[in-house]
Protein 1
Amino acid sequence: MVATGRDDQSADRSGALQKCVLEITLLFVYCWFSLRPKPPRCSAQTESPRSLPAVKSQAEFDSLAVTYDPDTPYALPHVLFVIDRKDQNKIYYVNTKRYAFHKDFVNGTYLSLERGREFFENNYLKAKSPLHPRALSHIKHRCGAGRLNSGKAI
């Protein structure tokens, strides 16, 4: 069978149309990802330190501390800290506003790359763990036996 010129023109137009649709799609995808607004970085993560080597004042403690349930009589500001036993018992007072969990700080500063169960077992359960994660709380005032913070009876 001999192909006619009309069939060749139709095939050329079809191929050109497919190529045009592909180019438009790729251009759209490129524009979508390049022009999409970037999420703002949290200022606490960019402007504040990861940790401090010591807490020497109430202001330093407050700059690192978080308080869960602040409107309750049990509100207790606290700071996470990690003792690195591999580095002469160096203490890191963690910026708890930046790192909610010990593992996040430890992984974020490359003190350890362990995760999940391995991190928990090696650092919380073993007596001679390389890292010693703990929390430090501050009770601003006591109002008598059985009373804490708000002055209401517990």
Note: DSSP finds five helices and four strands in the chain.
Protein 2
Amino acid sequence: MRTIEIDEEVYRALQKRARAFEDTPNDVLREILLPFPEAPPQPRLASEGRSTTEGNHGLKMQGEEIRRGYVSYLEQKGIALTHEWGVLYSGANGLKVAIPTATERRSGRWFLGVAESYFGGGDKVVLILLCLEEDQTFDFVLPHEVAIETMRFLTRLQGQIKMNVVQAGESRYILQIPQQEPMDVSLYLHAYGPLRGKA
């Protein structure tokens, strides 16, 4: 173990992210700084010797497998989710969680989509943008209020809300918003508070 000094402001920020009586400052820093362990493998693309129909089905199955692994990872952190349908899960106290998944097709870019219907029924829905690259998984956990506000400006196509996450620096990630300033989603990386009922 190493000892580091931090100022009061940083310590208070760590306290806000910690689960009372459970997390040490090291636990909070580990959750923020260390990537999701053992990123699932890249799915094969439809162009790799399969028809488009077979490829889309294969990608859907790969997405389901990735989400299952991710939900198991959350369970190890004390966050239990139950699959409902599509990319929608339910958690404690009636919480709904949508987990669209994307693999990196172009360096530092992920294209995701989620059914618009998930957000129209009055349920409180947390949105997790699960973005995979070759050796890491980035999970941006957007609280319900942030997700709802942001979705007002996103493109809709055939009942889907389309999202484009872009790496904009060493550790900065943005959500592209048409005709608006992009939204910095970096602060939502590994931010599991909303899944535990914290704001």
Note: The first helix runs from residue 8 to 17.
